[in-house]
Amino acid sequence: MKKALIASAGLALLASLSAQAETLRIGVDLNYPPFSKQGADGKPQGFDIDIANSLCAAMKVTCQIVPQDWDGLIPALNANKFDAIISSMQITPERQKAVDFSHKYYNIASRMVAKDGTKVDAASLKGKKIGVLRASTQEKFAKDNWGKNGASIVSYAKSPESFLDLKSGRVDAVFVDSAVGEQEFLKTAQAKGYAFVGPNYSDVKYFGPGCGIAVKKGNKALVERLNKAIDQIRKDGAYKKVQDKYFSFDIYGG
């Protein structure tokens, strides 16, 4: 009996140590402030990073952030470079063919940033250059709705580069997540004379129900754990604490 108890305790300890040692590798594009960027200290920071750390704490695993340019995120996930993508990736039918998603962890509209007073319609945008993030839902929407009507869609590997070109006049507008447009450009001293123009864009056909966490196809166990963790941080206040650090509105959405 004594030996059995010792063996049982040993197995329990091993299980505990194994759980403590579990690492969740998370792919993130660090060129998408305020959601993700590399800080002055070289460490990843932003809303997505803090949400990732909160989810890992809820799941009792160690977070390992793996930087990856946006257009390589899904290929790298499927090549086993990391276990999940937490990088403001919208849940769309096209992406669901390649990966599985958790339920959403936030949902905001996309907006056009341009010189104040710019008209946003097919006729006004004909011949204009519109900057978008490569392989993004904004790129797909812009090509289908404005590119086919004579606008030139200019794709960027890194979102901040589009704002540099907007200011220098290389593009006439940038189409992006509204929070990125606001905090990365419109709230800066460089944005004088620029504004959000046109309506909010949230067509489910292009933008889905919001941003989710992507995992490899068929990894239902990880999806379930992530869904449970999202629900937990929404209930225990950890989500709101992260949200309020970066935004003055409810980013989770209806």
UniProtKB/TrEMBL annotation:
Residues 23-250 form the Solute-binding protein family 3/N-terminal domain. It comes from the Bacteria. Its main location: periplasm. Residues 1-21 form the signal peptide. It comes from Chromobacterium indicum. It is found in: Periplasm. This is ABC transporter substrate-binding protein. Pfam families: SBP_bac_3. Keywords: Periplasm, Signal, Transport. Gene3D superfamilies: Periplasmic binding protein-like II. Belongs to the bacterial solute-binding protein 3 family.
